[in-house]
Amino acid sequence: MRFRLTAMLITLAACAGGGAATGELPLIDVAALEQRLQASPRPVVINVWASWCLPCRSEAPLLKEAHETYGDRVEFIGVDVEDSQAGARQFLSEFELDFDHLFDPHRELPQALGGFGTPITYFFAPEGRLVRTHSGAIDKEGLISGIEEILGSGSTL
Questions:
Q1: Which CATH code of 3.90.1600.10, 3.90.550.10, 3.90.1720.10, 3.40.30.10 fits the domain covering 2-151?
Q2: How many CB atoms lie within 10 A of CB 97?
């Protein structure tokens, strides 16, 4: 039973972008993320969140649904800020967010991109052009609108 639980936790951490050996989310490297955005042929949604953030909890199910609907056309990246690795893992497990997540204990990404508070959602066109920033909890309408804008289509969630 203990082996099964350990294997399940390692699998969950790996799905969340953490290393299989440690279960830790990878530390953010802003320069590498900027290069990833510039090289991306797909639009990208980056959501800045924290496990202690109540509005982040309200938007997590929307992000999960959006990823399930648009994940084949839009890349989703979560950035956990000013948090603990344990809190991050618990949050990702609770909300079953299975797209890439990075750990940003010092808010380096929001400092680099502008934006304040938590949560923040950034919408990027292919090749990394920032199209829209939404500070605060995003609702379904705002998330769909941002995704449609970066896709350039009338898709629905």
A1: 3.40.30.10
A2: 22
